[in-house]
Every structure is written in C-alpha cells, then in structure tokens.
Amino acid sequence: MDPHLLRTYVTVARLASFSGAARELGYTQSAVSQHIAALEADLGLPLLTRRPVAPTPAGERLLEHAGALLLRIDAARADLDRFAAAPRATLTVAASPLALHPRVLAALPATGVTLRALDRDRVPAAVATGEADAGLVDGVAAPSDPLRLPDVAPLAATRVAEEPLAVVLPAGHPLAGRSGLRLTDLVDARWLDAPAAGVALDRLRAVHGGPAGRGFRTALRYEGADPRAVVALSAAGHGLALLPHPVTEGVPGAVAVPLVSPRLVHRTELLLPTAPAGQAERGGRLGEFTHRLRG
User: Fold this and answer.
1) CA–CA gap between residue 87 and residue 112 (Å, rounded)
2) Spatial distance between the Cα atoms of 170 and 81, rounded to a whole number of angstroms
3) Low-confidence residues of the chain: pLDDT under 50
C-alpha cells in the first residue's frame, strides 16, 4: 500500500472534496483522482462515493488503520533523520497543560525555546515525528507506576514529578469540611469535564465508574487549557473537579479535599526520542534542558 496514495485518500475523506484535497496537498485535482483510483485498484475495493464524496464501508475501515500507519511512517522517517542530525541550537517542547510543573519551567533554557501546548494524546506523536524535540505529558496513575502512553514510536519516558490529587468543591459544599474523599462516594456527583486542563471524566469512569462505566455526570464541559479556570468554575458551583493539589490553591471560594481512595497520583513524564545506538550524549538546547531536568 503506497503511503502517498493513502495520505491522499485520508485528506480527501477528511475534507469530503477532491478539489479541497488537491489545494491542501499541492496536487492537481486530476492527480488526486488518479491517486484514489490507484489505491482502489490496489485494494480491489471502492473506497469513496463521488457524489457526495464520502467513505464507503470499506473506506471507513481503512480510515481506522490509516492514521496509525501514516504516523508510524512519519515517526520512522524522523527517527532515521536523527542519525545524521547535529544538535540543534533551538528547542521545541510539546507539553500538555498540567505537565508544566515548576521544576520543568525552571529547567528550560533562557533563550531559544518554543513551548507548544498540545492535548495529552498529541504530545507523544509530536515527539515521534520530530514536530517537537521533547515532550512533557501528564496523567493519573498509581504511585510509581508509569503512564500508559500510545505506542507511536520508540520513546524514552522519565518521571519528572508525582503530586497528590485533590477534589475541588465550592466552599459551601456539604463535603468541603472532610479531611479526605473517596471516588466511590462521588460517582453520582455533578462534575466539570475538562479534558485538557483537568482529569478527564472518562478516566474517572475507567478507574471507578458505576455499572457499565457510568457515573461522573458532566455538569459543564470546559474545553480550555487553564487549570485555574477549572478551579474557579468549581468554586462557582458548576461541578466538582479532580486536579493536582498544588494548582488548586489561592482561588477564592474553592476548597480542595485530598483524594484518599483509590491511591492515585498526578504524574508528569519527560518524553524523548530513543537515542540511536552509539550516538553521543544529546547536546544543544535539548541536552541543556534534559540535564537540568534530571539534575
């Protein structure tokens, strides 16, 4: 299966347009049509209807594979490029919002740094494909357990920090005076769903959901990346939130009660491409950053 043809197919399916895909990819519309026809001939199945442009059932199934296939190809190319690459004078770090631990910020070089905020799921791919030199990703795990990350490429993960978790409530909430809270007692509560800036509710359902994974009802969904906004929303009565304890402090009207069961922590990890065998210690801004972070 030719990856160039596959990439063209994915673009046409995403845009639902041959002409739109031609503009985005820099091809003529005729070339895009030829790519799709060649891929369909190779697989022996129609992948797209033409009017309207939409994936067939076989095309839908191919799309389920295509993203992972193209990502692995891009990651392989970036990995091989690193064999000949000299240390870079600049540094690009991809980070999920809650991964910006004070220790991380203190380790960043004073100049030549680009810090790119991404969703948690996108950070490993950014490092694997060379979009970022390093990644910082966060998540919930049992104490000392590594995060479960997608298998996108050979990446080295190193623990940067582990912090206790707290449930954020309005000061007048009946549970605000507790010394600790258990998730099992909060399954039926109303929650804020903040996938980027807090612990996503689907993660809570996976850890301690009700029957068939239900529970942790969404009262309000916040699609921003500022955890302080999540705390403020909780203080205003829009739902409970689960956050690393340090980011919950100093917001008027909010109370943070430690999570005592199950035993979970907020973990931050540094992601780096696996160094080629025999390659010297990383230099440049990346070497400076990792040395400070691990020191």
Assistant:
1) 13
2) 52
3) none
